[in-house]
User: Fold these one by one.
Assistant:
Number 1:
Amino acid sequence: MLPFDRDILDLARALVGARLVVRGAGGTILETEAYARDDPASHSFRGQTARNAAMFGPPGTVYVYLSYGLHFCLNVVGRPGEAVLIRALRPELGIDAMATRRGMAVDSPLLASGPGRIGQALGLTLADSGKRFDGNEFRLIPPEAVPDLVTGPRIGITRAADRPWRFGLKGARGLSRPFA
DNA sequence: GTAGTGATCTTCT
DNA sequence: GAAGATCACTACG
């Protein structure tokens, strides 16, 4: 398991290359984004609401939110009000289950390449928000070696869009979008 | 290959 | 009323 109580940028970097397993399905994390407490792009920026309550839970909490009314996106909460969005996954475990939920072939490059796709592939719902990465339903396994990372601006936001808080596994296929 | 748009819900102005 | 941490489908070059 990983230490969650640390600077959110450190946590976002540490999660790239780690293994994420949710109820027996998952794989290696290829891409993450950091959202800080004092960050205009973060859901926590305007304070706690019913929707983002899990983001203010203890380090290691699962935060799932509904994006654009139809996509469930997965976050790892660090210090209260800070979280890391998981943007891309290389499927390695429970691939059949993920392919079934996605309605595509097991070797499709689109199985979990994007935050909404991960949500669908892992079968996430709002009921998962507030659970913990404690090794039961949600598990995180640190990488054996520190991988090479690439860095870039976050995707799909308008505020604080220049902060280079997106991290990817260098040279990996299956990123949600290429790094410049 | 790029460009446009619909789906669908929460929050903010 | 509009925008948002998105994706998939369609139309068109």
Number 2:
Amino acid sequence: MSLAHAILAALLECSHSGYDLAKRFNGSVGFFWHASHQQIYRELSRLESAGHLSCELIEQDSRPNKKVYSITASGRSALGQWIGRPASPPPIKDELLIKVFAGHLISKTRLIEEIRRHYRQHRVNLEAYQAAVLSYGDDIGQLSRIQKCEYAALRAGVHYETSRLHWCEDAIQLLLADSG
Amino acid sequence: MSLAHAILAALLECSHSGYDLAKRFNGSVGFFWHASHQQIYRELSRLESAGHLSCELIEQDSRPNKKVYSITASGRSALGQWIGRPASPPPIKDELLIKVFAGHLISKTRLIEEIRRHYRQHRVNLEAYQAAVLSYGDDIGQLSRIQKCEYAALRAGVHYETSRLHWCEDAIQLLLADSG
DNA sequence: TAACCCATGTAACCTGTTACATGATTAA
DNA sequence: TTAATCATGTAACAGGTTACATGGGTTA
């Protein structure tokens, strides 16, 4: 159900086509939820038949036509109700940790190199979150309630990526100290 | 594919039944990967037909019989190869963050109460990770390579839960400061 | 006597991934 | 002229969830 609600949340600010959403799912809402374009198109049809979205066909020359979806009153209220229901924190599901856990099956060098790869990736992610956070300006106190909510959610990304970076450093140090 | 490898990793130390594994997926490997018993039974059959596991039927009085699975040489080598292949960090997928992102649709009080609920949950999780970490003793330098790998993986849980707790505090403060 | 533990599974369903398909326009 | 961008989708499959089913033994 979460994808449906992530889409509704993404359409709160303004209307989008499926193609736009697929791209936005690499930024904004995409910082918290990921989906492929196939999933998004499937879900958009469902949400439209459920009456949570309305759809307008935009005919274009020199470009394929597109369907622009907007959230309806019913969609807003469904989203509000869902937000009000308690969620449980997602369990950790992380390939790398299984690999480290059973990491003695490969050489120390290769294991550490893999962790370093992740380190670099997390540094890139962190920069993206930080750039997004900075776009809200210096004076957080002045933000509207809507903006404060968005900002608070974004901060989670900064926290997460930072903790990952620290863990990578820790793990590398720990494994390097081994004689084997 | 990850579930299969998580199971293989869990069976490295010693053999288990499906029932045992389902429970262990709440501890040890379960700190990094989650699966229901239905998934586990399905995957165990597959791994056995692939030759990565062998199975022994243990007949019991006063208890249902059980099937105890052990990793085979082929299973070990498949696991080793998988560990050697690069993985990409999992994208964040977190209901709570969507809810906070669109949190202006419900009252400030309710949103903050929900974040507090998560705070309490993460504190419980953190204690579990810390207890597991402590079981490795004080002198980390003395651990075997196998233990160091397990320990390093566990530390990720401590990092993660701690960063979550900090974020919850941040987010609550930020939202409380709002007049709305 | 009710609820939980042990222990295994099936079936239906929903979610997510991979591969395939089309076809014009635009930038390198 | 090659590749990328825009824009939508279908089909097959793999992964994950929920509900159901069984049945003896143990604990409250």
